Amino acid sequence: MIFQTNEKYEEAILSTLIHIQTHLENDLHLDMLAERVGFSAFHYHRIFREIIGEPVKEYIRRLRIERAAYRLKVSEETILHIALDAGFKTHESFTRAFTRQFHITPNEFRNNFLRASRERKKLTQPKYIADYHVKAEPTSRQIRLEHVRPIIVAFVRHVGPYDKLLDKDSPMSLLWDELFEWGNANKLINVDSLLIGIPQDDPSITPPEKQRFDVCVQIPEFRNPSGHIGCQTISAGMFGVCRHYGSFDNLAEAYLHIYDSLVTTGKYNLRTQTPFEVYGNSQVKGDIRIHFTDVYLPVEKNQSNQKN
């Protein structure tokens, strides 16, 4: 778990983290962030660094550059436009900061991703196109489009590598136990509440030790943070959805299958919204048993493709 400190500090920092991740395109000055949670700038900066492990300014700067890297992968926006949205005043200053973080220029980063995507398309397109159109294929190979309404979730944030987080006897079950205890005490959850995971970072971009994964349960109304249990809303929108069965070791294949079936074909573009996962489950004697995972990847119709 991310927090092991005073509950008042936990709630203040968690509130700040959600505010930062949903307002990265805005001015996020230290004084403003401190004032939001009722601390002096000096005291707030010390607490933030102690809990998160990075100064406020560096944390925000890293998230902005990582989001810019993701946009380089999923959009056709110019590098200058992405740089300006990330808070940089010039293409050159963005390139220097990007290269310092990833040891490669933004242009090289984008070209490498596009090259890998084209190569994968050559290898996989015939099979994936067939899988996409043949309804007799196993459910796990079918893609569906779904318009999702806003989903309010309570969550506990795990920071660090999350590739094994869903394995049996992993910390995931303990985090959900904590959420269930809180939700039941506040009469906010029942047997129909969705169990959701939100990978806040692209593992190919963010260092493993800084990757954020939110273990979530659906709740009917928004609540302020309580200790290290926070609340956030999954925004409405269109998603490509793929159902995955079996080991979580190859869950990434479900993400690639959606991408190659919808995006690589040119019919859809990725949106910059965070993807999420919904876990089909049952509870046996208090233990959560996951039977399948529905992967939700945010997409939108490719308007330029439709015009051609």
Give a short summary of the structure:
By secondary structure, this protein is an alpha+beta fold.
Describe the biggest sheet? 9 strands, antiparallel
| CATH-defined topology of the largest domain | Multidrug-efflux Transporter 1 Regulator Bmrr, Chain A
Q: Give the N-terminus to C-terminus distance in angstroms.
A: 50 Å
User: Beta-strand percentage?
Assistant: 15-25%
Whole-number count of domains: 2
Number of helices: 10
Question: Low-confidence parts lasting 5 or more residues at pLDDT below 50?
Answer: 125-139
| Radius of gyration, whole Å | 20 Å
Please give the number of β-strands: 9
Task: Give me the strand/helix succession.
Answer: HHHHHHHEEHEEEEHEEEH
Helix and strand topology:
Blueprint: H1 7-22, H2 30-36, H3 41-52, H4 56-74, H5 79-85, H6 91-102, H7 106-133, E1 143-148, E2 151-159, H8 171-185, E3 195-199, E4 212-218, E5 229-234, E6 237-244, H9 252-263, E7 268-270, E8 276-284, E9 287-301, H10 303-307
Antiparallel strand pairs: 1-6, 2-4, 2-5, 3-4, 3-8, 6-9, 7-9, 8-9
Helix pairs in contact: 2-3
